[in-house]
Amino acid sequence: MTLRIFSIQHDRQGLSEVERVSGHIPGITERLQSFPDVNGAVVLGTCNRVEVMLETAADVPNHCLRALLNEGIDEQPSWDLFLGEAALAHVFRVAAGLDSMVVGEREIAGQLRRALMDAQDSGRCSLPLGIAVEEALKTSRRIARETSLEGAGRSVVNTGLDIINLPDWPSARVTIVGTGSYAGAVVAALRARGVRDIAVHSASGRGAEFAASHHTSHSPCLASALNGADLVVTCRGLGSTEVTVDDVAPGMRLLDLSLQHDVDPRVGSLPGVTLVDLAAIQGAVGPGYAEDSERAETLVRAGVAATMARLRARVVDPAVVSLRDTVLAMVDDEVARLPQRQLTKEDAALALRRLATRLLHIPSSRARQAAELGRTDEYLSAMAELYGIGDEPAVDPDELETGRCPVTDMKICDLDSTTTREAM
């Protein structure tokens, strides 16, 4: 079992790359389902990231998985790859919003939960991968309870709008430039503040379709779209400036939600003009939450450690199941050999001795083989590990009487009723 995450992130590859790869998510999901060595897959696509979370056979080459992910994508994405414990830590950080544009934002946890449910409903999610994501979500909820990061973790859009702080939102005229990842969230956030006059402009030609689907007006000309706007929100993220110094009127407010600047940064120095970008948003919420961020990181480390221990334990599940089936089959066989009459103490003792002899036969034979091969110390160490043979008893006698066996899930007192029931 190996956890792997192939990732495209807003701060590493850029929002335009996130948007480009997001368009191929349905094809990626189908290809992963058909690949035999992928045991489980959860695919998360948001405005800020694409995360392909996999649980695979250990010997699958990474280049094979990359080829699978890149199939059908013209320009090959530069995926970041996380493996093993690093992959698990990445899931936890994503779920907690620690890698988001605004640290602690809570939308990502809901998006990850929906991605997990989709994978489970379609039968794509393996048990280890489900455990990893569920535990990450639990830690995310704990961080929300035990820190105040949730207050800082409002969406990037709402945080930016809070900083802009128009005096009268319902009467404001707002222009959205671009139909990129944030555009839909911008429309929803503006409507939640009572804004009714929303226009959309897109140089890509998608503006009319976006405006129709989001019930806004469409401005095919940038100059007319900017003219008279109280607020301009840009969310293209294409790596080139769309709004220049010459486009901006005095008193205009602008919110640039692109990592690569849709608005010329010099606009911010114009008299009477307000420009808020992602750096300003992060700077506004970050300093006051340093202690909470440190607490969140501590919770993430603890959650990762506990989950890694749980996942490692699951590796021996097939061996434990086989051991349980073998031992219980021996018990059933000995029960079937009991005489069909009222059992005596001698009958029970004979049955137990036969069972003990059968259980000890293979370990005893292997002990002799180990001694002949000069592996005595190694074998004795294994015996101590498996059976608790050593200076100190492995199990307290009282605990043995009252506790349940991790293999059979039975208490010692259950044996009396089981034996009696089977013998009658």
Describe the structure.
With 424 residues, this protein is of the alpha/beta class. The longest helix has 28 residues, at 345-372. Strand 6, helix 10 and strand 7 (217-218) form a beta-alpha-beta unit. The chain has helices at residues 15-22, 25-34, 62-70, 84-96, 107-121, 127-146, 149-152, 156-164, 183-192, 207-214, 222-226, 278-285, 290-314, 317-336, 345-372, 376-387, 397-402, 412-423; strands at residues 2-9, 38-45, 49-56, 80-83, 173-177, 197-201, 217-218, 231-234, 253-256, 274-277.
Count of alpha/pi helices: 18
Overall shape? elongated
Can you tell me the residue ranges where pLDDT is under 50 for at least 5 consecutive residues?
A: 417-424
**Beta-strand fraction estimate:** 5-15%
Mean model confidence by pLDDT: 83
Structural class, by secondary structure, is alpha/beta
SSE topology string: EHHEEHEHHHHHEHEHEHEEEHHHHHHH
CATH superfamily of the largest domain: Glutamyl-tRNA reductase, N-terminal domain
The CATH architecture of the largest domain can be given as: 2-Layer Sandwich
Give the structure's gist in a few sentences.
This protein is α/β, with parallel strands linked by helices and 424 residues long. The chain has helices spanning 15-22, 25-34, 62-70, 84-96, 107-121, 127-146, 149-152, 156-164, 183-192, 207-214, 222-226, 278-285, 290-314, 317-336, 345-372, 376-387, 397-402, 412-423; strands at 2-9, 38-45, 49-56, 80-83, 173-177, 197-201, 217-218, 231-234, 253-256, 274-277.
Write a concise keyword list for the protein shown above.
3 domains; 18 helices; four-stranded antiparallel sheet; 10 strands; elongated; 52% helix; alpha/beta; six-stranded parallel sheet; Beta Polymerase, domain 2; Rossmann fold; 424 residues
